[in-house]
Write a structure and sequence with these properties.
By secondary structure, the chain is an alpha+beta fold. The chain has helices at 7-18, 23-35, 40-47, 51-64, 90-119; strands spanning 37-39, 67-72, 81-86. InterPro entries: UCP037373_trxn_reg, WH-like_DNA-bd_sf, WH_DNA-bd_sf.
Length: 123
């Protein structure tokens, strides 16, 4: 049985999404940080996502280099299963996101100051 996200983990997902990370990606990251490695079906169940949502999240995470994928051989016919694992731990991912947001805040503050000067709010 796949464990759903705890209240604390749901809060981490909410905070990550409030800082601008896509909510589905946040759910996948938090679940994988807890489980270590998982197949799509387990991610779908635990994060309460549909298969296309997991696929889109994985596409982004692979592009960012945060997740690696491997194929598991399956008995019988059909597509092989894909298993996913984070390449960074949750602390490293959060630190990276915080750094990006702080840089963004600095740029916004600089733009606001320049705007204030241009319209005469500040001299």
């Amino acid at each position: 049985m796949v464990e759903e996200l705890t209240e604390k983990e749901e809060k981490i997902v909410r905070l990550l999404s409030e800082t601008g990370l896509n909510k589905n990606i946040a759910k996948v990251v938090v679940f994988l940080s807890k489980s270590g490695e998982a197949i799509s079906r387990d991610i779908e169940r635990a994060a309460n996502l549909r298969q296309p949502e997991v696929s889109l999240a994985m596409k982004e995470l692979k592009e960012w280099g945060w997740v690696k994928e491997r194929e598991l051989k399956k008995k019988g016919k059909g597509r092989p299963l894909k298993s996913y694992k984070l390449t960074l731990d949750l602390k490293e991912i959060v630190a990276e996101l915080i750094e990006k947001k702080r840089e963004e805040i600095k740029r916004i503050e600089k733009d606001l100051e320049e705007l204030e000067k241009l319209v005469g709010l500040k001299s």
